[in-house]
Fold:
Amino acid sequence: MRPRFGLDRELVVRYLEHTRASSELVVVRAALAIQLPDPADLKFLEVAVTGLADYLVTGNGKHFVPKRGTHKMQIITPRDLIDLL
Structure:
């Protein structure tokens, strides 16, 4: 709901309700051999990769540009996701 994303509140609420209803548990069994600018963000990338997600949605895309190693996960903003829907 951050103002900088310019998203309609009702649209976000509906999307989150849909996400909760259709989510699945993902357990990461192996760490990725990459280094991100913020090591605390690696867990989000690992879940996305393990769960075979189409996208990792974040307002901080630059945090997912590896300092070491590579990944093929497509990083998009919340606005990009809404536009895709």
In short: Residues 36 and 67 are 5 Å apart (CA to CA). The chain has a mean pLDDT of 92. The chain has three helices and two strands. The helical segments are 9-22, 42-50, 78-84.
